[in-house]
Design brief:
alpha/beta; Dihydrodipicolinate Reductase, domain 2; 9-stranded mixed β-sheet; 14 helices
């Protein structure tokens, strides 16, 4: 359990993940005395505020691209912590506002330039000295993957293996939302992520392989706990970059995610006809960005929760040395879509992303996580993080396993 405190938290972003973070913070009044949910579209905030039905939750309109506007909101509300679950494009402006106002910062996804489908930590890592000089802490990537996945790796290194040599992060959504095509979080961000060239790290270098829609992509069948065998595709994910930097004896790290053939078929068609483009095109004399138009056509991820069935299984398969012998362990969480909807009207994908952010915010608010500068989750103590995640609905299991080829 976290110690009782009375912190004020500003949550920026009112999408499906932001709704989960807000609801979880509201369910922990011993930690958070006041909550403000802010978004460019205040109507989204008001819907979540009404659903929660707590006087502790205030709402505000803010343009998160505008650091001065974010800073002015911080000055008015005077939070002890800012949780950023807005778009990855807005990370730097919100970080700038936190530095200017001296307020700690936490997010769930690393910065991505709007005009380039490429994400890496270099932009945010460059803020290390700025946060140190301001005497405040920034925690990056505190969702599930990244976030819980980073903590899982550090936990295994701390308690189960003397050295980790190989990590395979496995992300399976075995649920169905009964839609022809939909994404489980922001469609624009999701599609930009999965259409990139794939990278994994091995023997001291990054190795590129084709994107998941390409016939030459790398994939395998993996037998997931409670979900069974699922086709899993090699994908680049941001936590690979930080874990390579922070896990000392690492020789290889890969990220795998499940996709149905239906999903991939739709994605190939969208790409072939240009709907996944992120550059502007002229339509009736107006510049539009095709992927943003596609986003407007697709179901809102928050609308999927009511009819979602099945489970997610996300974990880290770690191979290394224990007492001089090679050993492989699997640490993972199983989350049920119907159960998360019953609890807080969210699907399991949004739930697994939002709960760790709320838990990280609790640890920062109670000073269980402290520091000055910019931190990735694996640089912090995993024990209180995993303990509070279990209390808040994301229990975890560790079991002996077989390593992947």
């Amino acid at each position: 359990m976290v110690e009782s405190t009375k912190a004020r938290v500003l949550i920026i972003g009112a999408g499906s993940v932001g709704a989960v973070v807000t609801r979880k913070c509201a369910k922990n009044p011993d930690v958070f005395s006041d909550i403000m949910l802010a978004s460019r579209t205040i109507e989204k905030c008001k819907v979540i505020q009404k659903q929660i039905g707590s006087k502790k939750v205030q709402v505000a309109q803010v343009d998160a691209d505008n650091a001065a506007e974010v800073g002015a909101l911080i000055q008015r509300f005077k939070p002890d912590l800012v949780v950023n679950v807005a778009l990855p494009y807005q990370d730097l402006s919100i970080m700038d506002a936190c530095i200017e106002t001296g307020v700690p910062y936490l997010d769930t996804a690393n910065y991505e330039p709007p005009n380039v489908a490429h994400f890496e930590y270099k932009w945010q890592w460059q803020y290390q000295d700025k946060f140190k000089d301001a005497g405040i802490m920034a925690v990056l990537g505190c969702g599930f993957d990244p976030g819980a996945s980073n903590a899982y790796c550090r936990y295994i290194e701390k308690h189960h293996l003397d050295e980790i040599h190989a990590i395979d992060i496995l992300d399976c959504n075995a649920g169905t939302h009964h839609k022809a095509f939909a994404t489980n979080f922001n469609p624009e961000i999701n599609i930009r992520e999965v259409t990139q060239v794939v990278r994994h790290w091995e023997n001291g270098e990054w190795i590129e392989t084709p994107p998941i829609m390409d016939p030459g992509c790398v994939h395998m069948t993996y037998d997931y706990p409670e979900a069974g065998p699922k086709e899993s595709y090699l994908l680049y994910h941001e936590e690979l970059e930080s874990l390579v930097k922070n896990i000392e004896h690492l020789e290889r790290i890969r990220f795998w995610m499940t996709f149905s053939e239906n999903y991939l078929t739709h994605l190939r068609v969208f790409q072939d006809i240009g709907l996944t483009r992120i550059d502007p095109v002229k339509f009736q004399g107006v510049d539009i960005i095709p992927i943003q138009f596609l986003k407007a056509l697709l179901p809102d991820p928050s609308s999927l929760a009511a009819n979602y069935q099945g489970k997610t299984v996300i974990g880290c398969l770690c191979t290394g040395i224990k007492d001089g012998e090679e050993k492989t362990v699997f640490i993972y969480n199983v989350c049920d879509h119907e159960q998360t909807y019953q609890e807080i009207q969210a699907n399991a994908v949004s739930y697994t992303a939002g709960v760790p952010a709320a838990c990280g915010a609790m640890l920062m608010a109670t000073k269980a996580w402290t520091g000055e500068g910019v931190f990735n989750v694996e640089q912090l103590d995993p024990d209180p993080f995993l303990e509070i995640m279990a209390e808040q609905g994301l229990p975890w299991t560790v079991t002996d396993s077989e390593k992947l080829p």
